[in-house]
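Chapter review: from sequence to fold.
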Amino acid sequence: MIHNTLGEDAKIFDIDEEPTPSGLYNKILQSPDAIEGESSYTKISKEFEAWKEKYPDMVASLKNFPSRIKVAKDGAENELFVVIKKQKLFVHQQLYDAKEGSENHFIKEVEDILEKIKADINEPPLPLSNQFWEEYEKIKNYQENPKNYKPIPDNNLQTRAINVLRNFLKINDNQSVTILKPFVRMLLEDLLDYGTLSDYTIRRIANIDIDKNFTKAVDELKSIEKELGSDYLYKEKQRISDVSKEIIIAIENKKTNELPTQNTFNDNISK
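The token string follows.
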């Protein structure tokens, strides 16, 4: 009788469970999570509340975090996750070690990547790999135009500038380059995320030829740093009001000691 009355709603009972008036009342009082299983949103909310209680100062400091964060940590696979919040939430996964010709980019749900991006409170951050910026750029380009996604041509002025800066980051055991690397990373971040550099400056970077004249290349970067200021992007970020509307968090998982890394004395978190 109750089955006939409830129709489709009788599914709230187990298959072998005989519906009764009192049983129906108890089912109605249960939360949806108790009936259908805890939702991902509920799990995340509970975990966040637990962190707020256990680490209140750390959670409170999130208010002061920048809208662009890049960090690397130890992981089971070499991969990159980029979470982009702009009206909607987009989660990208880029596999570094996928076989040639196989799919290496995926759109994910947050709950699918939670276990992979978690880190212990005491786990130290790792330096970003040399591969990070290339994969990060691919995801940014895909996000901006997924239907018509095409890599930016290699002869594009901005692409040439990005390649020059990437090549600088690959140079190790050279003190003059090591000192410049924080500024080089800042230029890369600007080109990929903010776009505050003038065409003139981008052209100067693009025309740098490390192989042809290394000393001249280093001097040109030093000159650009002197003109712009070693922390110019920090000031620009404060002036770009629209940036706060879009949040981008990049988490790189690295099999320890497998990926070449950038030498850095600073945290990877963008300030």
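Two observations follow directly from the output. The first helix runs from residue 2 to 6. The two ends are 65 Å apart (CA to CA).
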